[in-house]
Amino acid sequence: MKKPRLFCFLSGTLLIAIAFGCTSEKESPQPSNAQEASVEESFFYQPKPQEENKTSPTPSGRDAEKLRQELLMDDKLIKLPARFPGQRTSQVQGSIASNNANTYSIQYQTSTGSPLVHVTAARYMDREEANREIENFQEGKIVDPSGQNVQPIGHGVAGYEQRAAGEYHSSMKQDQWVLSLTSQSSENFDYSDVVRRMEEHLQHHPLPASANQGVVDVYYAPASDDATMDIRWQEGNMIYAVRTSLPPVTSLKIANSMN
C-alpha cells in the first residue's frame, strides 16, 4: 500500500514542476528580432546624433575647446578660427549646423545674431579627389593675360584685371594661392585698391602655408559695395572653407587664424 502513496507523491511533484515551467516561460518571453538587433548593435560604435543649431560661446579658452570637443571628426583634422577682428570674443557664438566623422559646418555670429563667418571642413577619399574639388572651384577665376580689355592691376600687384561694361574681374597668384575679385557693381568703386590692400596684408600675414593649393574668391553683387568672401584650401585629402560678408582684409585675418 506504501508504493501507491510514493507514486502519487512523485506524480504530484512532476505536475507542479511542469506547471512552474510553463509559468516561467510566460513571465520571461524571448527577445523579439528588434531586441536582438539592438543587442547586437550595442557592440559597435554608435555615433552621437547630429545636434542642429546648438549654440555655445566659442572663440577663446574653455568655450572654444568645448565646441571643438563636440565635433565628431578626428581632432587632428579640425581647424577653427581663433580670432574675430573687430569683435569682443565674449560676444561671439557658434552654432553647429552639421557634424559627422567626415564633415562639420559651424556658423559664427554675434550675441545679437548677426552672422560673422561660416566655417566648413570636408574629408575626401584621397588627395586627388580633394585636388579636383579645388581645381573645379578655381575654374574661371583666373584672368587670361591675353584676353580682351586685360591689363596689369598695377599698384605693385603682380596680377591682371579685365574691365567691361558694368563688370570687373581681377586675379593674382601668391605662392600656392589664387586671389580672384569679381564685381557687377558700381563702376566708380576702386576694386584695384581692394586687391592692393589684400596683397599688402598677405605680404605680412600669408595664408596657411600648410595648404597644397587655395582660392580666395571675392564677389561684389550688383549695386553693392559690400563683398562676400569664399576662401577654400586643400590640405591632403581635406578641404577647409571660410565664408563671410565682412571686409576682405578682415576675412583674410579670420582665415589666417584657423588652427
Structure description:
This protein has 6 helices and 11 strands. It has an 11-stranded mixed beta sheet with strand order 1-2-3-4-11-10-9-8-7-6-5, sandwiched between helices. The termini are far apart. The N terminus is likely disordered. This is Lipoprotein. Keywords: Signal. It comes from Marinococcus luteus.
Q: Features of this protein?
A:
alpha+beta, 31% strand, Lipoprotein, 11-stranded mixed beta sheet, signal, 259 residues
Basic shape: globular
Give the topology string: H per helix, E per strand: HHEHEEEHEEEEHEEEH
- Radius of gyration, Cα only, in angstroms? 32 Å
List segments where confidence is low: pLDDT < 50 over at least 5 consecutive residues. Answer: 1-62
Spatial arrangement of strands, main beta sheet: 1-2-3-4-11-10-9-8-7-6-5
Summarize the structure.
With 259 residues, the chain is an alpha+beta fold. The chain folds into two domains: 35-123, no CATH class; 124-259, no CATH class. Helices cover 31% and strands 31% of the residues.
What is the secondary structure topology, with strand pairs?
Blueprint: H1 2-27, H2 33-41, E1 54-57, H3 61-70, E2 92-99, E3 103-110, E4 115-123, H4 127-138, E5 150-154, E6 157-164, E7 167-174, E8 177-183, H5 191-204, E9 213-220, E10 227-235, E11 238-244, H6 248-256
Parallel strand pairs: 8-9
Antiparallel strand pairs: 1-2, 2-3, 3-4, 4-11, 5-6, 6-7, 7-8, 9-10, 10-11
